[in-house]
Amino acid sequence: MRPSDSGMREKASALRAALRGLVRGLGLLDRDGACCGGVTLAQCHALGEIADSGGLSLMELSRRLGLHKSTVSRTVDPLVEMGLVAQERDPLDRRRYVLSLTAKGVEVERRISATVELRCLRILEALDPASHDKVLSGVEELLMGLRKALEKEEGECDCVDL
C-alpha cells in the first residue's frame, strides 16, 4: 500500500478496530482462559479439529490450527493427561502417532460445540434477520482475504519500520 492510498489506510484502520472489538468480544485475548469443560481456548480448537477429522497426526493438527508443531504438542499433552485425547501409533506408519478423542473427549467436545453454537445463535438473534446472510458472507469473505494475505506474507510477521 502506497502512502497516497489514504482511503485504503482509513479502511484498514477501521478493519483493525472492528477486528480488535471482535477479538475482545469473543474473549480471545485470554489465551489460557477456560473455554468449557476446564480446557483452554486453544485446546477447544484442537478438540474440534480432532473431532472433525476422526483422527489425525500432530503435524496435520498443527497445519489445521496454523501453529508450530511444538506449540500444538504443548496444547495436546494436557488433553491426553486429562483423558480427552488418545495418542496411538499409526498401524500403517509406526513413526507417526494418531490423535483421536476418547469417549470423555467426545462428551467434552460436544458440550463445547453446543455452547459455541448457542453463542452464535444469540449473536444472530441480536441482529436484524435481514442481515444474517450478509453477515455470514462478509465473515466468509474476510476469512478468504485473510488466507490470501497470509499466503503472501510467507513466514513470520515482521514489524513495519517507520
Automatic annotation (TrEMBL):
HTH marR-type domain residues: 12-151
This protein's name: Transcriptional regulator
Upper taxonomic lineage: Bacteria, Thermotogati, Synergistota, Synergistia, Synergistales
UniProt xrefs under Gene3D superfamilies: Winged helix-like DNA-binding domain superfamily/Winged helix DNA-binding domain
PROSITE patterns: HTH_MARR_1, HTH_MARR_2
Coiled coil stretches, renumbered: none
SUPFAM superfamilies named among the record's database cross-references: Winged helix' DNA-binding domain
InterPro entries, sorted: HTH_MarR-typ (IPR000835), MarR/SlyA-like (IPR039422), Tscrpt_reg_MarR-type_CS (IPR023187), WH-like_DNA-bd_sf (IPR036388), WH_DNA-bd_sf (IPR036390)
Entry-linked Pfam families: MarR_2
GO molecular function, one term: DNA-binding transcription factor activity
